[in-house]
Amino acid sequence: MVHLLILLLLLLSPACFANERSPLATLSPAQSELFRAWFVRIVSEQLRQGPSPRWVQRDCAGLVRYAVHESLRPHDYQWRHSTGLLQAKLPAELALTAEQEQLGKRWRSAEGQQESYVSALALIQENSRFVSRNPVQARPGDLLFYDQGDDQHLMIWLGDGVAYHRGSHSRNDNGMRRILWPDLLTWKDSRWQPTEENANFLGIYSFSFLSP
């Protein structure tokens, strides 16, 4: 019942509060495509190299916030050197305005305030737009949102599967996971299957600052 109420709130609230939830700035269509490329690349590097020391809050929402912040910053020599990407082929720079650069630092909280930290639910409810419950409409960089009753969870669509942080880590397990699409569709715990028949899967979401 709880996840059904959350779904209704997420679907109805944008129509009621569209003006209140408009982002401070938006990216052009070209910038949005570049952002998606950077976002997916930075998430993928957390899988390949392990979590960056700059990523402090290690959970699914923390991964999203970190990757957005890193995507919207200048990727100069120092950044590329510190991230181990000095020789890597990377997307072009987004050429952001000063206002656009703040998007990854100022999230809208459930109380309507600008915060550097927001939960998984606030990321979806206050900072994203609903796309569909049909997963074939997901684009690289979109978010898959799940409600499991006591908590909510985010996965990031990479193009051929998802990445996420499981919310805990240990000395021998950094908490990062990647699941290919066929495996996720047939996952043994059906609560995590991204299908329209699964009531725990609330849909695909896109950041509200991106061009549709």
Tell me about this structure.
A six-stranded antiparallel beta sheet has the order 3-8-4-5-6-7. The chain has helices spanning 2-16, 29-49, 60-71, 77-82, 98-101, 120-127, 181-185; strands at residues 107-108, 114-115, 128-132, 143-147, 152-157, 161-165, 176-180, 201-207. Residues 1-9 and 11-20 have low confidence and may be disordered. By secondary structure, it is an alpha+beta fold.
- Enumerate the strands of the largest sheet in spatial order, edge to edge or round the barrel: 3-8-4-5-6-7
The topology string of helices and strands comes to HHHHHEEHEEEEEHE
Largest sheet: 6 strands, antiparallel
Structural class by helix and strand composition: alpha+beta
Radius of gyration: 17 Å
Number of helices: 7
Topology:
Elements: H1 2-16, H2 29-49, H3 60-71, H4 77-82, H5 98-101, E1 107-108, E2 114-115, H6 120-127, E3 128-132, E4 143-147, E5 152-157, E6 161-165, E7 176-180, H7 181-185, E8 201-207
Antiparallel strand pairs: 1-2, 3-8, 4-5, 4-8, 5-6, 6-7
Helix pairs in contact: 2-3
Spell out the key features of this protein:
alpha+beta; six-stranded antiparallel beta sheet; single chain; 212 residues; 7 helices
In brief:
It is built from seven helices and eight strands; from the N terminus they run H-H-H-H-H-E-E-H-E-E-E-E-E-H-E.
